[in-house]
Structures are given as structure tokens and as C-alpha cells.
Design goal:
The protein is of the alpha/beta class. Helices cover 35% and strands 18% of the residues. Bound molecules: alpha-D-ribofuranose and calcium ion. The site of calcium ion has 10 residues, from helix 1.
């Protein structure tokens, strides 16, 4: 990793006081993996921990993938990676039958086994303790998976909530079709009760949904640049994204892919790449065809005060350039003399 060494610290030291302390809650998954790569390639962020939850694959595979990705990235070996919930709190867990993310959850890319071990505490307990050690608004959460851990945190440890600066969530489809049902996006469909609890908890929220992630596709040319670079990280990222783009082409006729979770990380670093609309939001939990639907009341029809900023537009080319440039700059092969 070519990133200037910023000493790993739970509490940023003065020289690193500017980076935003964040915890990423994820379910790697290919786009979670690229989101992690981007987060660690962003000096604006100080990733102080990773929490994991079942989603794209079962929790055991998610944790293993997260540990292997930390090795690939070359993160500080002390970086906590904590195991979270193995499924929703109010429903049976449903791991997708058709593996969108391929064998092992990383597009069939096999990373070397990691010698790292998960943090001994459960993700929710660890995160609650980290938050209690922070000042008000001292930590940003980036959530790129079903919101089970985050809901459990807010429900079980409400005293930890004031330390949350904001939650940047990849999830939902406010004004666009879903990707699991016509109305629901996967993360909100997987655990709608958790999504509803988080949206109505009163914590500052930014929602990056399918409305924008599908408008900011990573193209075949981008993927080929990563594959051509030949370094371990860029090569792995290219192969993972190649899996998604190949599947996307088969299903939609477009040789490209939506790297949903990476856009949530980009939103935390460069919110200017996105157009935001304030709304009152909640998530529908019932209904044969409405389970997991993100409801966004922009015009005050419910009379409820706005509780989230919803992404409604994106500068797609700027995001693509941001993502690929950072990956190549941070992890790419040294420029040939
Ligand atoms: O709908 C896209 C989301 O579901 C992404 O977070 C992807 O990783 C899956 O978890
Ligand atoms: Ca995810």
C-alpha cells in the first residue's frame, strides 16, 4: 500500500487529528471489499475498526473475507475486525441462493488465509465501547450491509448514540426499483426491522441507495485498467469486479457493474459528488411486495420532520475517476522508471 503511513490509533494523535474516525460495518461481498480498499486509500478517513454481519454470505465467510482483505490491504495488524450478527433479529436469516458475489463471496477470488483473528468481543459490544470512549459526534459509521448490528447497537446501547457523528448507509431505493423485489434493495430487504429502527432512531443519517449507485457504474475500461496494472491489490479488485460486470452483462446487457458500497465510502469522503435531498424516511416491514421498501417523504406528506439526507443524484464520471485513481495510486504497481 503506497499510502503515507498514518500511525494506527484508536484515538487519532494530533498529527492525524484531521482524518475522520470511522468504523465500517460490512458483509464482504465484492463491493464491500472495494469499499474497504477505497476507505484505506482515503487519508481523509481513519478506519478504526471493521464490524461484520451476515448478508451477501454467511457470517463465518464474511468474517474470514474481512480478515483476508485486511491482509491484502496491509492494514495495521491491530485493527479490530469484530464478528457481528449472523442474521436479522426478527426474521430467519436468508443468504442469497444465487451467489451474486460468486464462490466465497469475492467473485471466486481466493485470497490467502489470514493469520489474523477476529476481535474477541461481539461487534455490537465492541462498537458500543468504542463509542463510549469518544466525544459527542466523535465517530462516523459507514454501513454497507443489512443494518442488524447498527440497530442492535442503538437499541441495546442508547447511551452510545450521541458519539455517532452520522451513519452513512448504503441501502434502499427511494425513487428507483429495488434489486430484490420491485420495491426493495437487498440490505433493507434482508433486515427491514433493523433498517426501520435505524432510520427512525434520530441519529444523523445519509442514505446512498440504488437511485445513485446504479447511475455510477464502474465500466469495463475501469476494470481493465485495474487488471492491466498487475499489482496484487489492483489485480484482485479487477478480478472481483470482472465477476460482477460479467454477471451484469449477462443480466442487463451492460459490461459494467454498480459498486454500491464504494459509493457510500466516497459519499463520506466527497459528499460533493452526490446530490442530497432532505426527507423523512422509514422502511416498510410488512407487505408481500413492499417489505424493505425505503419510504422517503420529501414533501412533508406525513408531517414528520426530515430525519435523513437521501442521495438523489451523482456525478458518475467524477466518482469513477475518484475510485479508480485512488485504487491505482494507493495499491498500483510502482510506476516503471
Ligand atoms: O444492494 C446492494 C447491497 O447489498 C450492497 O451492500 C451489496 O454488498 C449487498 O450487501
Ligand atoms: Ca454490502
Amino acid at each position: 500500500m503506497n499510502r503515507p503511513e498514518t500511525p494506527y490509533s484508536e484515538t487519532p494523535s494530533p498529527e492525524t487529528a484531521s482524518p475522520e474516525p470511522v468504523v465500517i460495518d460490512c458483509d464482504p461481498g465484492i463491493d464491500d471489499a472495494v469499499a474497504l480498499l477505497l476507505a484505506f486509500a482515503s487519508p481523509e478517513l481513519d478506519v478504526t475498526g471493521i464490524t461484520t454481519v451476515a448478508g451477501n454470505v454467511g457470517i463465518g465467510q464474511v468474517v474470514d473475507n474481512a480478515l483476508r482483505l485486511c491482509d491484502l490491504i496491509g492494514t495495521d495488524p491491530r485493527l479490530p475486525v469484530a464478528r457481528g450478527h449472523a442474521g436479522p433479529l426478527a426474521r430467519a436469516v436468508r443468504i442469497p441462493d444465487e451467489p451474486v458475489h460468486g464462490e466465497g463471496g469475492l467473485g471466486g477470488v481466493t485470497l490467502p488465509p489470514s493469520a489474523r483473528t477476529p476481535h474477541p468481543e461481539h461487534a455490537v459490544a465492541w462498537l458500543a465501547e468504542r463509542l463510549r470512549a469518544r466525544p459527542a459526534g466523535g465517530l462516523t459509521l459507514i454501513a454497507t450491509a443489512p443494518l442488524t448490528n447498527i440497530a442492535a447497537l442503538l437499541h441495546t446501547h442508547p447511551d452510545a448514540a450521541p458519539a455517532i457523528k452520522e451513519i452513512v448507509v448504503m441501502g434502499g431505493a427511494a425513487f428507483a426499483p429495488g434489486n430484490v423485489t420491485p420495491s426493495a434493495e437487498f440490505n433493507f430487504f434482508a433486515d427491514p426491522e433493523a433498517a426501520r429502527y435505524v432510520t427512525e432512531a434520530g441519529v444523523p443519517l445519509r442514505i446512498v441507495g440504488l437511485d445513485v449507485t446504479r447511475a455510477a457504474l464502474t465500466t469495463r475500461a475501469d476494470i481493465d485498467r485495474l487488471l492491466a496494472d498487475g499489482a496484487p491489490v489492483t489485480g484482485a479488485a479487477g478480478r472481483m469486479l470482472d465477476h460482477l460486470a460479467t454477471r451484469y452483462e449477462r443480466r442487463h446487457g451492460i459490461d459494467a457493474c454498480a459498486v454500491h458500497d464504494a459509493l457510500a465510502v466516497a459519499a463520506a469522503v466527497r459528499p460533493d459528488l452526490i446530490e442530497w435531498t432532505d426527507a423523512w424516511v422509514t422502511v416498510e416491514c410488512g407487505g408481500e411486495f413492499s417489505r424493505g421498501k425505503l419510504i422517503a417523504d420529501v414533501h412533508g406528506r406525513t408531517g414528520r420532520p426530515h430525519n435523513a439526507r437521501v442521495a438523489t443524484g451523482v456525478d458518475a464520471d467524477a466518482f469513477r475517476a475518484f475510485l479508480i485513481t485512488r485504487l491505482l495510486h494507493t495499491y498500483g504497481a510502482p510506476a516503471h522508471p
